[in-house]
Model the fold of this input.
Amino acid sequence: MAKPTPAGTQPATPAAAPAAPATTAPAPVHGFVTDMTAFNAFIATHPTPDQFRAAYPDVLLVLPGTVATRELRSNNSRYFAEVDANGRITGGKFM
Done:
């Protein structure tokens, strides 16, 4: 028979490691861009094209080298992006 272990002498269980902070993507903004302040703040984070498409799924992202017509759209539905050497969006304009 096994002897009972006296209280206080049981091996301590390791404490659970603190959970890493959850990096939640911002909620997608559906429709065209109407809040330019929030949009400009988002662009200031230098998002990747994939992050841009996830955040603004209804806005057509036109990257350098992509063939696109330049008809005038006044509803902020198409963004011509400028990118850095790493492919991150650094600015651009709606057309």
Summary: Residues 36-43 form the longest helix (8 residues). The two ends are 82 Å apart (CA to CA). The longest strand covers residues 78-83. The beta strands are 60-62, 78-83, 89-94.
